[in-house]
Design brief:
Layout: E1 15-20, E2 24-29, E3 40-43, E4 46-49, E5 69-70, E6 78-79, H1 82-102, H2 110-124, H3 149-166, H4 175-188, E7 190-193, E8 199-204, H5 206-209, E9 221-224, E10 227-230, H6 241-252, H7 259-263, H8 267-270, H9 283-295, H10 300-304, H11 312-327, H12 331-348, H13 354-369, H14 373-390, H15 396-407
Helix pairs in contact: 2-3, 2-4, 3-4, 11-12, 12-13, 13-14, 14-15
């Protein structure tokens, strides 16, 4: 769809902020959107490229390309061109000198790096930004009253790291304000991902954070560089209701009452056991196995004798095993796991799920690499059907996939 960038004085055309009983605030549509329509785009208030992607992507726009130019001072940050380097300098200067001084001892977490950039942005930018058309950063929920001792200790550790690594470049608010900001980032931050949902960096999008969660979402958040596009669910929707409720309470401090959580319509398939078991396991044994599946990625043969391949914990184990195969360059092994995963993914995830698209992309690229071109093209086409809706037909990721297909024909 065409990008709806027209703004009203109150926010973004086609949307409206409203008080949401039991959830604080929310964002609702004020006009009809069709499948594939772009609701709005939001630039990041602040963002950081993850350290693992340095050298392969531009620090400013996250573009992936060869021949990037490195920062002449720290030799760690890479850019497309002079414009990108200048554009990132107000934020990169926070880290540049420190990286030179600390060398291999430079090790702030991604959260700490993001919070440092937010502090600098707050100092330089006093007016409302294009990222805050509906919700300002200061309005973001922190849920400090719901923090347990472990989360409080993590906040204290991040504050200490901020002072340690950024003391020369930042004027800090008091610890109470820092604690609130870190909590706001942890509750409202976003992970920027590529077309295969690999981690690229972290960012804060206040307007996007205004959207409430549903386990049966009617919109998707995708990324074009460092811009979030709303074509949301806060968590991976693969897991059954009880697990999702636990994850949402732990990270976002609320209980979801969406249609999917109320009906639990997909839970039976998600927790399916083998149909023919000589000795059906006791309920307590199944619970222990679930805990085991969530925390340990080994002994898959034992789990496979009890859990069906549609069981989400078995799927999780197979996904991790697929990742190991990819790391070990066992392409056949990775392909076999992907083939087992894709159909249950298509059932368990909502329509136009990025998780399903990313699995078709992985499979398509594996098929191509193994010279199974017809299967590869078929899988990539299925990925594109979803991506056309989720990302929009003009997204660079779609052009990349189409180029891959053309090169193989």
């Amino acid at each position: 769809m065409a990008l709806s960038r027209a703004m009203t004085k109150e926010g973004i055309e086609g949307t409206e902020r409203f008080p949401s009983p039991g959830k604080g605030r929310g964002l609702k549509a004020t006009k009809q959107f069709k499948v594939g329509d772009l609701v709005f785009a939001c630039p990041a208030y602040a963002y950081v490229l993850t350290a693992n992607e340095r050298g392969g992507r531009c620090e400013c726009c996250f573009t992936r390309r060869e021949g990037l130019s490195k920062c002449g001072k720290c030799k760690e940050a890479y850019y497309c061109n002079v414009e990108c380097q200048r554009g990132d300098w107000p934020m990169h200067k926070l880290e540049c000198s420190a990286m030179c001084s600390y060398g291999e001892n430079w090790s702030p977490s991604e959260t700490v790096r993001l919070v440092a950039r937010i502090l600098l942005k707050q100092k330089c930018q006093t007016e409302r930004t294009p990222s805050e058309r509906l919700l300002t950063l200061k309005e973001l929920e922190a849920h400090l009253d719901k923090m347990d001792s472990e989360k409080n200790e993590m906040n204290d550790t991040d504050i200490a790291a901020l002072h340690h690594f950024y003391s020369r470049h930042l004027d800090y608010p008091d610890n109470a304000a820092l604690t609130e900001l870190i909590a706001q980032v942890n509750c409202n931050g976003f992970t920027i991902e590529d077309e295969e949902l690999s981690h690229l960096g972290s960012a804060l999008f206040p307007d996007v954070a205004l959207m409430n969660h549903s386990c049966s979402p009617n919109v998707i958040v995708t990324y074009k560089g460092t811009i979030a596009e709303i074509f949301n669910s806060y968590i991976d929707l693969l897991y059954p209701t009880e697990d999702r409720v636990e994850r949402l309470k732990d990270s976002y401090f609320f209980t979801c009452d969406c249609k999917e959580c109320t009906s639990k319509s997909k839970d039976k398939a998600k927790m399916e056991l083998r149909q023919k078991l000589n000795t059906p396991p006791e309920e307590e044994e199944i619970k222990k196995m679930v805990v085991y599946a969530r925390n340990v990625i080994e002994d898959m043969e034992k789990m496979g004798s009890i859990f069906a391949e549609t069981n989400v914990y078995m799927l999780h184990m197979m996904y991790q095993a697929m990742g190991v195969c990819l790391y070990m360059q066992d392409w056949d092994g990775a392909m076999k796991y992907g083939e087992k995963i894709i159909q249950p993914y298509s059932v368990h995830y909502p329509p136009y799920s990025l998780n399903v698209a990313s699995m078709y992309l992985k499979l398509g690229r594996l098929y191509m690499g193994l010279e199974r071109r017809s299967q590869g093209v078929k899988a990539l086409k299925k990925a594109l059907v979803i991506m056309d809706i989720a990302h929009g037909k003009d997204h660079p990721y779609i052009e990349e996939v189409k180029k891959e297909m053309d090169e193989q024909t």
